[in-house]
Specification:
It contains 4 helices and 12 strands; from the N terminus they run E-E-H-E-E-E-H-E-H-E-E-E-E-E-E-H. It has about 180 residues and is mainly beta. The chain has 2 domains: about 90 residues, Elongation Factor Tu (Ef-tu), domain 3, CATH 2.40.30; about 70 residues, SH3 type barrels (Roll), CATH 2.30.30. A hairpin with a 4-residue loop joins strand 1 and strand 2. The longest helix has 6 residues. The N and C termini lie far apart (about 50 Å). The relative contact order is 0.15.
Length: about 180
């Protein structure tokens, strides 16, 4: 299988270096740090350049970032040019999720349909709060924020790309 045949997902960006041994700071985008700790390789793309594969020698969590030490890139001088790169991984390299859990790349662009109102828009972003994730929906009435909890999210149909929700009138009026 060639790299063109593989499915990739962007997981973050290299925002800086850490220490003198060539550790890179990866700021994750909409993915759990714990999902990234077991990765064996990452693909970095700097600006319009081609994606390059790097083997991971070591990784650890540091505050809200993941520190990566890449094989054969164990000095500050070697890794500084990689700062600013977008980081991707093969989708198959991520650990499986429990039933009913999804990653952003699986949900992005899905149509969101309210059980009473019909289509409310498409999922364009999500963010995590202390209590739960929140879906950001772009619809005809503007941006709608929906707590991603079973009370509001009835069904996620990945195959048909539809998220069915049951939104109370109060929530809809808050978002206008």
């Amino acid at each position: 299988m060639t790299s063109q045949d593989r499915e990739f997902v962007k997981i973050g960006s290299i925002v800086g270096t850490h220490g003198l041994r060539g550790d890179l700071k990866l700021r994750p985008w909409r993915i759990e740090l714990s999902d990234l700790l077991r990765l064996k390789r990452v693909y970095l793309q700097h600006r319009d350049e081609q994606r390059q594969v790097f083997s991971i020698l070591r990784s650890s969590v540091h505050k809200t970032n993941l520190l990566l030490r890449l094989t054969d890139y164990e000095s500050l001088t070697l890794v500084e040019p990689l700062v600013g790169s977008t980081v991707s991984v093969e989708v198959d390299s991520l650990p499986p999720l429990e039933d009913g859990r999804y990653r952003f790349h699986q949900l992005e662009g899905m149509q969101v349909v309210d059980a009473k109102r019909g289509s409310v828009g498409s999922l364009v972003d999500l963010f995590t709060t202390a209590a739960h994730e929140t879906y950001v929906i772009d619809g005809a009435d503007g941006e709608i924020l929906i707590p991603a909890v079973p009370l509001f999210v009835i069904k996620v149909d990945v195959k048909n790309q539809i998220i069915t929700v049951d939104l109370p009138d109060e929530l809809m009026s808050l978002n206008r």
